[in-house]
Write a structure and sequence with these properties.
Mean pLDDT: 92
Strand order of the largest sheet: 1-4-10-6-7
Radius of gyration: 22 Å
Largest sheet: 5 strands, antiparallel
CATH architecture of the largest domain: Sandwich
Low-confidence stretches: none
Number of domains: 2
Oligomer: single chain
CATH topology of the largest domain: Immunoglobulin-like
CATH class of the largest domain: Mainly Beta
Shape: globular
Structural class: alpha+beta
Length: about 230
Amino acid sequence: MPPTDENDKTLMFESRFESGNLYLAQKVSDSEYNLLMQNDVNTCGHTQWFFFRVMNTKAGHKVKFNILNYSKPDSLFNYGMKVSIYSDRLAEEKKVGWHKGGEDISYFANGIRKDVLYSSKSFYTATFTYKFKYSGDSIYFAYSQPYSYSELRDDIAGIEADPDRGCFVTTKTLCTTLAGNPCEYLTITSKKKDKDVLDLAKRKGIIITARVHPGETVGSHMMKGVL
C-alpha cells in the first residue's frame, strides 16, 4: 500500500511484471536503499539482471540505490555505462522512452562474503543515484533496455504478417523453455522451387543467434535490427 502521509518520502518498489527482477529492497534512509537481485534464471547463483519500478516519487528528491549482490569482479558500470531508465511522466509529456541515466555510478567489492564458512570471495556492489523530476511518477530502472518474450512474439508475428517479408520466412519451434514457452527459429530464404533456385536442402545456410543470458537484451535488439 502507498504511504498515507503525503510528506512520506518512502519509495514503493515493484518487480512482479514480465522480465522484472528484484528480490528485496531495504530502506537505509529517505535518500538511500539497499537492493538484492534474484539469481539469473537457470544459473548457479549468477546475478546481473535487474529490472524494477519505484513509485511515490517526489520532484527534486535524490536517492542512492545500492545493488549489493553482484558476483562478477568487474563491470561496464566502471567504464561509462549508465542505468537504463523509463519514466511514465517523461514518456507521456515529452515522448521520451527508455534512456540512459543515473549519477555517481560505481562498482566495487563490498566485503560481504558469498559463503561465510567455505569461501573467501565477496559480493560486489553496483551503486547509482537518481534525482526524480516529477512527483507521483513511476520510474523503471533496468540493467539495459528490456526486451521481453511478449515483444519477441509480437515482432515475429509482425514479420510473418508483412507481405514483403513474410513470404521469405518460415517459423518453427526448436524446443520449449523450462517455463514451457516455445523457443522458435526463423528460416529466411526464397520458397521458390523452380529451375533457377536451388532445392532447399542444397542451399548453404548461415546461422545467426543472439542473447544467451538474461542481461544480454542488447543482443535481442540487435537481432531485431538484423531481421
